């Protein structure tokens, strides 16, 4: 029989192990996944001479897109008038990005 204290330690170490596996990457790799926490960030970048503005579900997703597509996204403060959907979709790192026609 495992004591409640030991059971708690097992759960904590299991959680820590899983958490480190989720965010663990080497310097040459992009994060594979981001936690599904909705904390939207508006990011913009000049791409092929055009200002593209996209709304990501969180900063991890924006960072993952930047890494995968080698884009220098910059966070935009204030109202986020996003670019047309087709412009953001191509920089999609997962389904956690949205765009609206402005």
UniProtKB/TrEMBL annotation:
Residues 1-24 form the signal peptide. Gene3D superfamilies: 3.30.60.30. Residues 24-82 form the Kazal-like domain. InterPro entries: Kazal_dom. Keywords: Signal. It comes from the Eukaryota. This is MIP30219p. It comes from Drosophila melanogaster (Fruit fly).
